[in-house]
Design brief:
8-stranded antiparallel β-barrel; 16 strands; 4 helices; alpha+beta; 322 residues
Length: 322
Amino acid sequence: MKNCIKLFALLFLLNSCKNETKEVRNKTAVKTQKNDEVKIPATVYKDYTTAPVDFLDEKYKTYGFEFQGNSPSFPSYYFFDENLGSFTVTYVGKSRLTRDYWDTDNSTGFFAQFKGNNKNIKLLSDRADEVLKRESNDYYILVNFLPTEAMTECFDCDLGDFKLKDDAYNYFYVYENNKWVLIKRLFSRNIQKEGIELFTDILLSYKLKDSKSIAEEFQGKFKAEADGEYTNDGQGHTTYYFTITENKIDLKYEAFRGDFVCEGEYKGIQNDTILELYYDREDDRCKKLSPVYLIKKEEDEFFIKGIGGEGTINDWIKMDKE
């Protein structure tokens, strides 16, 4: 009988241990499940306020220059390093004339000196390098940098084919006064534009961010008129109304078969005696790296350049001030 009691006690003890072990395991399982639900922390980026390298170093021109687009094209070169990341250096002409030099259809432009379709890639690259070094002051030198910590997988590194993290960033620098300046950091997934539209967005916002107050002599309400092009319905005519205050320029217009006008807000940058007007709203058709209009004062009279059609757009036209 005593042996039966001892056996019963032993079985009871073993069963209690099993239940306790099961309970501990269940608690562990719950704890593990909760840990799995914790979000992966955001990528920790280095401080790229200062450029990580000198992007103009000759060693980064391993593959030579390429030409993005064609009307116009933009000379650029690409580099990848698994410890650094990838970057593209692009030369963007400051003026329309400089940008058009790289248009493949320009009969007096860069590509006109190379005859036929069998162009020597290395020769093209070497000649482009010579031009850009000689005339570097005529260009914005823009870098699009993607750090290695933004990448999860590289399919074809030499072609820039990467799988990116959800929180990947691109860093944009411009070369100014012999140093690289960080001008914008963008979520990679939010970059929808490319070519001149992207370059304009990046560079124009940087160019206008430190615009100063407009001189009092240029402030006021102005009106200017210009004839447009002849059509089958007659000649167009457009009247422009500018309201210029210390920190803002507003343009409205009236047109009779007139030319397309970018109505809305502008910002002004005074360059010596000329007030440069840059479109400052969201219509991509109107955004330009070069000023849309120029206003100058001669004695007590004001003149504007940039209004009307092809027949008047390069002329200084008198403005009336209220």
